[in-house]
Here is the input.
Amino acid sequence: MAAKRDYYEVLEVTRSTTTEEIKRSYRKLAVKYHPDKNPNDPGAEERFKELGEAYDVLMEPDKRAAYDRYGHAAFAQGGSAGAGGGFHDPFDIFREVFSGQGGGGIFEQFFGGGAGARADRDGRQRGSDLRYDMQIRLEEAAFGCEKEIEVSKLDSCGKCQGSGAESGSRAATCPACGGRGQVISSRGFFQVSQTCPRCRGTGQIIEKPCKQCGGEGRVESASRIKLKIPAGIQDGSRLRSERNGEAGIRGGPPGDLYVVIHVKEHEVFEREEDTLFCEVPISFVTAALGGEVRVPTLEGKATLKVPAGTQGATVFKLKGKGVPALKSGARGDLMVRVLVEVPTRLNGDQRRKLEEFADLCGEENAPLHKSFFEKAKEFFQ
Here is the structure.
């Protein structure tokens, strides 16, 4: 029996290679050696299985650490289970472009679809759902907008119209699984049933695969998609764009595209549900004598009347100047917290005037000061 090759050598990477680089290398090599693209080459099929085994080990941190320390001996009978003979669909890796989770991970648990979807008797299988993360400004979230995004995904092959077959070719029973779509492999004392690597669970193979897509019925391409962002959308909300996910296998229906909204932090406003908050500085004179100050809103400036004797940190409400509610459209409020600004540099005349003002005020014009020291007088005895 031939000795196993080093897994890093199999995937044409080094021991310092990152997980993402391993994914990219595996995807490229698995497409190159896929049995459907090499129907009369047993060596390619063995190479394909070898790639799946190496990928299975190096993509899992625990298995990779064990392999780095003990080599293939870590997965001999009695070692860590599940290392050998694994099969990975290379197109599963394409599904990770937007999900960031990997086949069968959290993304597919939330959104459905993916490699686990069942194929019909003609091998047609629904395409995977995809995820796209979009960042928008607070103003766009508040009032809604239209966006156009570009998504790189697997679309239906134009040459074979998604069938995966050359013109005049027909489907035949898969010789590897006898049409069952499943093959049984032994792992120690256990027998494991898994998706057939030759037909990928369909039970059929195409006699003459399409040269453009290799029998997949799909090719990777960039698509431009227009989206309407509703007014009042919240950070973290998901929008579903039907049938804009990946094309189905061999003419199957496409999946959906889920767009996750991320609202950028604003320089002036903070948002809680439909209410906006901001802080506006006012002068010491305005706080004492009262007056009007300009206040920013999402639609421009507004005027706020400040009564005489306003204290620092006082909050004023501007009704209906917040964010529209997503369902009802009713506007929230804008809460304005005023900050009394104290002069930091005084010339001689200013200082003398303020000292005169302080002498004139006395404690009767400083009720907060008087109240505080009455409550805290025991600490000053």
Notes: The longest strand covers residues 145-156. The two ends are 94 Å apart (CA to CA). The chain has three domains: 1-88, 92-162+219-265, 270-380. The mean pLDDT is 80.
